[in-house]
Amino acid sequence: MTVNREDELQAAMELPLGSEAAHGAVVVTRQQWKWSALAGMASYLDAGSIVALGAAMALFQQRFGLTDTAVGALAAIGPNAIGCALGAFVGGWLGDKLGRKRIYQYDLLVYAAGILCIAFAINPAMLFLGTFVVGLAVGADVPTSLALVGELAPAKARGKLLGLTQVAWCLGPAIVLWLALALSRWGLLGIRIVLLHLFVVAMVTWAMRRGLSESARWKAATATASQSIHALFAGANLRALLWTLTIYLFWNLAAGTAGAFNSYLISKHIEADAANVQALAVGLPSIAFVSAMLVGWFVFMPYADRSHETRKRLWAVGAVAQIFAYVLLIVMPFSIPVIVLNIALFASGGALAGEAFYKVFSQELFPTLLRGTAQGLTFGTARIAVGIWSFFVPAIASRGDISTLATLLTLFLVISGAVGFLFMPNTSGKPLEQIESERARR
CB of 52 within 8 A of CB of 111? Predict the structure, then answer.
């Protein structure tokens, strides 16, 4: 009798707590890598769409005669903000109720439709509609896909596999920006081609995901218990919700600004001819994603599961690097050398004290039947905050007030860094069932 890899993985995950598999082998199977990579493509498409729209913002503004307020509104309703938030709220909850597979089977088709609407936009209505639809789709996919990774990962490799999704989050924007750079002399046509690349990636990922199975932990949990959403707002769950929300919301205000507006700020404040400005606007931000990808692969993934003390050290180093990155913009002029330093420091620090650890703790701190809902709430709330904030960034930038913007972003990063370090829970290397049992007793 032949047993395929998916059956082996499902059987291993369903072993009772106390067995060797339940305590988490260090070795990660090829199938777990594959499933994590396919789930992680949600992060590739999320970040890729954010940065593609950021790179296109000045060109769409010129093409359709959009005001600064309209540009802020466009950023606010898309994958970086409110559209994504609404998708996360609903998608995370449905993923807990109906299963991970039902959500990630279909949301990429919605994403692909939205991307096509943006790529072929001939008026502002198409641009705004497509942007909102893309936001809804990635918002639904991210908490569902991350819950799947967290539930299939061995206890002592959970950070490693969730770190892989963050590497994918960096790879998407890097490829988007390199394509935009190569096509920068084609102006808006080049950006339309970049958006079509995201459509192709979404369809290929959708086709490959059709072979994924439902989460074994989710199936086991639904077979033995039910969980009211009200349980999120009491005891250890409430404390975990507030902690993950705080570290992600304040970090994401800075990260969202960088992702959506770095290209825009460079195009507005660096003096050069039109073609060179667009090349700088898409080329310089790619430094961020290459830096974060390298730190994520060579530092975060190998060390995130070592120990609680190691996690705190990684977080501290990352938080300090990010704060220093924006202090530079307060005390120094907005020039290319300073921009390069800011981008590299913020991205490298963010790989250690940012979304990667937020993803890890969002899987570790909540029961299986509330995991997607909890992350949908924190992820969505943070994106709404970025959406509201996005209304004001273009206006501040148009006045040339970069130091004020940098001061506010520095404050946000201090809050995220301090709360993350001081109140970080000790969950490293523990099976999800053990973490849930320990927190239920508090």
Answer: no
Model pLDDT for residues 397-425, shown as the tens digit of each residue: 666 568 888 899 999 999 999 999 999 99
**Residue 349 within any structural domain of the chain:** yes
Give the span between the Cα atoms of 253 and 234, in whole angstroms.
27
pLDDT, average across residues 285-302: 92
Quote the distance between the C-alpha of residue 126 and its chain's center: 25
pLDDT value, residue 339: 85
Mean pLDDT throughout 88-108? Answer: 90
Structural tokens at position 24 = 């988490």
Whether residue 3 lies inside any domain: the answer is no
Flag whether 17 is in a domain: no
Q: What is the CATH number of the domain that holds 375?
A: 1.20.1250.20
Residue 154 Cα distances to 21, 202, 355, 364, angstroms:
8, 27, 20, 12
Q: Within a 10 A sphere around the Cβ of 358, how many other Cβ atoms?
A: 25
Residues 122-152 pLDDT 10s: 999 999 999 999 999 999 999 999 999 999 9
Instruction: Say which residue, 332 or 310, is predicted with more confidence.
Output: 310
360 Cβ contact partners less than 8 Å away, ≥ 6 residues apart? 150, 158, 159, 162, 163, 304
Where in the sequence is the domain holding 345, given as residue range(s)? 26-440
Confidence at residue 223, expressed as pLDDT on a 0 to 100 scale:
87
Rounded CA-CA distance 244/295 in Å is 22
Residue 11 has pLDDT above 80, yes or no: no
Rounded Cα distance, 81 and 256, in Å: 8
The domain total for the chain is 1
pLDDT of the residue at 248? 97
What are the distances in angstroms from CA 200 to CA 38, 91, 108, 243, 258?
15, 23, 11, 37, 26
Q: Is there a domain that residue 307 lies in? A: yes
Q: Give the distance, in angstroms, between the CA of residue 326 and the centroid of all CA atoms in the same chain.
A: 21
Rounded to an integer, what distance in angstroms lies between the CA atom of residue 295 and that of residue 425?
23
Task: Give buried/exposed letters for 9-28 (b at 16+ CB in 10 A, else e).
Answer: bbebbeeeeeeebbbbeeeb
CA dist 379 and 255 (Å) reads 13
Question: CB–CB of 415/423 below 8 Å?
Answer: no
Beta-carbon contacts of 112 under 8 Å, excluding residues fewer than 6 positions away, are: 199, 202, 203, 206
**Separation between Cα atoms, residue 102 and residue 219, nearest integer Å:** 13
Residue 155 near residue 360 (C-beta atoms within 8 A): no
pLDDT tens, position by position, 220-236 = 999 887 778 899 999 99
| Entry pTM | 0.86
